[in-house]
Structures are given as structure tokens and as C-alpha cells.
Predict the 3D structure of the following.
Amino acid sequence: MPNKEDILWFKQQFQKQIEATIQGTPFSIDLITAIACQETGEVWPVLRKKAMEVDRLLELCVGDTLDADKGRKAFPQTKAALLAVQNGGEMFAIARQALEDMAEHIAGYKKVAKNPNKFCHGFGIFQLDLQFFLKDPDYFLEKKYADFDASLAKCIGELQTALKKLGWGNRTSLSDFEMVAVAIVYNTGGFKPQKGLKQGFFDGSKFYGEAVFDFLRLAQTVSGTEGVPPALAPAAPGNASVPPPTPVSVTGDVYEVNVQENMLRLRREPIIDEQNPNGNVIARLPDGHLVQAVTGEASNGFLEVETSLRGAHLRGFAAVRLLKLTAERIISVDTPGLAPLHRAIAPVMMPRKEGIITTRNKPAGPLSLNEPGQPGRKGATPDELRQELAAIIDWLAVDDLTHRRYQPGNNHTFCNIYAHDYCHLAGVYLPRVWWTQAALVALAQGKSVVPLLGKTIEEQRANDLYRWLRDFGLQFGWRQTGTLSKLQLEVNQGAIGILVARRRNDGRSGHIVAVVPETQSHQARRNATGEVVAPLQSQAGAKNFRYGTGRPNWWLDVEFAEHAWWLHS
């Protein structure tokens, strides 16, 4: 399937034509590239390496030989169905010859080409289906699909139709997820929000929507114009390509949060449910935090605002009485890794005496795992990263009773240990131990500090990890994200996700879980509009599980003072 070199070739060949055609639409060069990769990515990446003119390459971009016996429902379901319509014989001859010609170069089609009743149903680099032969026979009979501009025009037309089906006909911009939703309609004719990207043709390992999203993100890391950086910075091996935090887009007045006793609760709706005051809380904003008004119109004592909190783009309703107008006009956005380090404060781990092996079948302690053969995350593609994270989850086997490191007992649970182990094996720093306050002061003064348990370092519980992420997360590549949908979407690309809640009673344990990539067997829970309401989680706790969606909205329980969703590439 297409790689970065193939995508670079595609953009260098066709970017100017694509950019001219998509002007005035919400589509991007990367979406069009992703569709070409998904539709004929088994063909043109092979042909481009041969001594072949581009026109001939485009003529050979055909495929899809599935008939009714393999589930095809659209016209023509069989050779007989095609022959039965006007000019059907001529079309079959073209479709049959196209298959034979393409199969000379693409090994996967050689076997099916031996069947004289088989023929191609998809034509052009964007694969217009032969079902449209009844509507526009000349496009196929005159081989207009071999002309890139003609094929592109058909593709854009179908995408525009899909856009209208989704009710987005007036949109001037789309998120990555929304663009792929349009592509799913392009493929299937419909989109069911509650299914997320698991829609469209299923190739045995992933759905059309999942594949197009992977290609979209890959295309975003490749620039087709020399000297122009790509839309998305390529990730180092072992990391996912994660887009930068979303900026605040509204232009209303800027207000400062003005609280004294408690933080401001940003709510999904401008109401407070007296029975469950935390039920619609999106986030808690600290004193002095800046928010920007959406319209400036108050509703029920609330003002709709946007803000950015440690990289999380948030939009919700804030109590007017807790806001103070300021002269500020712009709200800055924190970016992971760019926050200033507190001088020489570096990550720390529990020192290990020589020869000590820390294993899963021993009780939990401050040392990190170092078992021989433990898995890691080194992949360079979403498929590789997802497989590696699945291997980590299966190797940790948090539900295996012989893995005493995670088993609850004597009123103790080990969600913090499991979250650390998951991140540790994935190559992401989430501390098992961290510097004491006195050690942090000494480090900030440039002094050398030796890690000594109980003196300069201490173990981190879930409540401690909540505070560590808040205070130090940005410096170590973490950032908050504003919605569970965004968190699950990026985790599905092989990123690392954490959901953490701090207990109101600090003497009681908070809770922290890993948010993990969806599989064909395990998915997040979505509502009717497609919003993720419970991400796919992996945890140790009162109940240990490798995959699950947990108790609904557990992080909003009254015993928790605050919660946050964190993301790391």
C-alpha cells in the first residue's frame, strides 16, 4: 500500500490540478490524496516505478472485480446484467480488457483475470463505480476516467453530494474526522455517527473509514511543494503523528476567571442540575484563566466561551458572575514540549540495585518493570503502533491473577502502577516516583540531587499523577484534550491517552486509566450523534480489565474534585 514516497510522487504530479479544483470547497489536498491511496493504492504505487507514461498509468487505475456472489448489490451484479443493457457489450469489452491489462502489472489480480466472466467495476484513480454507467455511459465508453482532471471532477462531485447528505453543504471547513465521514458517504452512500470510522468496505482488518483516516494523516506529513512544510510534522519512530492543539477561534471579548474558594466549572449547557451538579461539567478553570466570549449574549446567567487549557480546546458555558472583563485580545495555546523547563528538573526513576528484576508476578513497588523480552512501541505507522500497544496490553495482562503487581487487596488498588507500566513500555514518561518538593527547590537552584526514596523522591498515587500532569505534563510531551472524541481519535492512531480524576478527599485514592486503541472486538461507546461518551479503557483498580468502557462518566462522580484527559504522541 502507499507510503510517504508514493504520496510525494502523487502530490508532485497532481497537486496543482487538485488545488485548483477544490477551491471554494472544504476539502483538502490531503483528503483527495487519501482517497486515491485507498481506492487505487494497490495499483499506481506499483506502476509509477515502471517506465510508463502518466496517461497510461491513469488508464490502468482500475479495480474491483467483486460480483453478486461476493456481495455486490449495485449494478452490474454480474456479466449478464451488464450485457443486458444498452452498450453493455461494448462496456464489458472495455472492462474486461482493463482487467487483463492491469493484471499484467499487479500480481494480486492475475488469478481473477483468468476467469473470463470477471471484469472491473471501478475506473479511474478515484474509482468511479460502474453503477454510474447507467447515468453517464460516455464517461466509461470514452475512457474519460483515464484523464486525471475528468476523474478528479467526478470525485469532487461525489464528495459534494456526500457533503450535502450529511447536512454540511454550507460548511467552509471540516475537521479531519468530518472529512473522512464525507469519504465514507462517498464509499457507501451513508454515514452512521454512532459507528465512528468503522464504516465502509471492510478488507478483513480495517474499515474504509479507518483506512482513509490513516492515509489522511500520512498525507498530512508529506509536502508536495519544495520549501513548504507539511501540514503535520512527521513523528519519530515509536510515536504517533498528532496535530497541534486547536487554537481559540472566536473573536469576542476576553474575560478572566475570577474565583476565590473553588475553580470555575465550565459546563456543556447553561444550567446546573441540583441533583448532579457535576453532570455537565467539561472542565474546571483556575483563577486568572482567560476565556473568550462566543457571542457576548448571556443565557440563564451563563456566557458561552472558548478557551485553551494546557493544550485542550474547550467550548462551554461559564457563570457570568465569575468572569471579569480584561483588555486582552488573544488567548495563547500551550504546546507540549515547548513549555519552559524548570531549569534542571529531569525525569526520575527509582534507582535499581544491580541484578534486581522487577516482574509482573511480584507485589507492586516503586521500581519500574524490567523483565526480559517485555514489549515496546517502535512502529512508524498507525498499524504498527496499534499492534504494539495491543501487544503491551496483552503482555501486561492486568486481569491475570498471577500478575500480583496489579491485583487489588487489603483496600489497595493499583491503577497508578498499571498506567505507569503501560506508558513506560510505550516509551512515554509518566512517573512511578517523582521528586519531593524540597528536591524540586534544590534542582531549580541548579543543585545536584541524588534520588533517594523517602528523602528526595516519593511514590506517585493517582492524585499525585493528576497534579504531576497538571504541573509538569506539558514539559514531558503531554497535553490535555478537550473532548473524549478527540482523545479516542488520536489514540486510535497509536498515541497514548490517559483519563485521570483527583479524589476530593486527598487521603482517598483517585483513579487513572489508559485510553487505548479500538479493535474490531472492542470499541468506545458513542451516542447517536457520534460523540464518544466512554472511551475504550484499560485499567487496574477494584476491577481489572484489559479492554472496557467502564462505568459511565465515573470521572464525574461527586467524590472526584476534578478530572482531565491527557494525550501524548
The first helix runs from residue 4 to 22. Residues 259 and 287 are 5 Å apart (CA to CA). The chain is about 30% helix and 15% strand.
